[in-house]
Automatic annotation (TrEMBL):
This is dTDP-glucose 4,6-dehydratase. It comes from Candidatus Roizmanbacteria bacterium RIFOXYD1_FULL_38_12. Transmembrane segments: none annotated. Keywords: Lyase, NAD. It comes from the Bacteria.
Amino acid sequence: MRILVTGGAGFIGSNFIIYWLKKYPQDTIVNLDALTYAGNLENLKTIEKNPHYEFVHGNICDTQLVNKLASNTDTMVHFAAESHVDRSIIDAAPFIKTNVEGTYVLLEAARKNKILRFHHISTDEVFGALKLDSKEKFGDHTPYNPRSPYSASKAASDHIVRAYHTTYNLPITISNCSNNFGPFQFPEKFIPLAISNIIEGKKVPVYGDGLYVRDWLYVDDHCRAIDLILQKGEVGKTYLIGGLTEDISNIKIIKKILRIMGKDDNQIEYVKDRPGHDRRYAIDWSTIHKELGWSPNYNFDQALEETIDWYKHNSIWLKRIKSGTYTEYYQTQYGK
Ligand code: NAD
Ligand code: TYD
């Protein structure tokens, strides 16, 4: 395969490239990434000299560049996005530009160049919010109800991807996954932010009452699911990927992290809630399990320990990220 990965310098994209080249060393990957605040080539240090890997610094909204790259590609795996809900609340513009327009540019190039597969990475957040303590889960037939600028832009992109299949017969697949965690995640997201604050002896900000629920997926399990969809998935189909079977609240996760890191609950700080905060996400991932034989390899506690360990052993990586514009964002979001 000759794969064009977009957003491969980000968290999930970089894990995916490393995973793929290890498992399929004969394949070639071109990584198109604009290197926004979230893109970090340090994530790819272990494979940067691999002759089957090439990095292209560029924007997915650049039609000419995307067309050129697509002409030499058979498969596209589209991760590039603005991905953080809190940033979309501060400024939605880059979310509309990259997530909606950028996806359209890629689809047009895929169509013109007769790409064999366009796989679109999306999120469970397109489905909106579930009630706390309900047994309901997002499933194959759940209607879209996005509630943040981030999730609305991802929902728009999903619809456009599906329309290109229906209208132009473009061979697409989509996956909507839950909250990922693991190595190389930018410390603006909940789990790495908590770990890095604890490492620095700072308090951990918990929004509202802390009783919000997410479905958590270890990034390696996510990469394996994408692999199966690319190899055996049905063209035109959407697969839901989640990591859990039982609910776990944000506050329980923070307490687990504090315990693993040998700290007490005094390090928790309840802060102002996020506007329009989705109460609960839970995914029914039985279809990908039944049809492609996927289920998570990691249980949550084991993956959390490995993630904490990774951040502890990669303090230079963390320090470099935090020396950039991170402090500015942190102060805007959390105050001094
Ligand atoms: P990330 O923010 O860590 O990385 C995004 C990458 O895209 C960065 O390398 C960035 O430089 C690049 N990028 C942004 N705009 C670009 C543009 N215009 N052109 C080219 N590159 C651009 O994101 P992530 O957490 O790795 O998420 C990857 C994908 O998975 C996204 O589509 C996201 O919506 C989806 N997703 C993420 C999660 C999660 O928990 N992280 C959950 C569900 C779905
Ligand atoms: P986040 O990692 O931003 O992912 P998403 O909003 O896309 O689900 O947040 C996960 C959960 O953690 C969400 O309920 C918001 C909450 N949260 C906090 O309580 N404090 C924080 O500092 C952050 C970043 C998130």
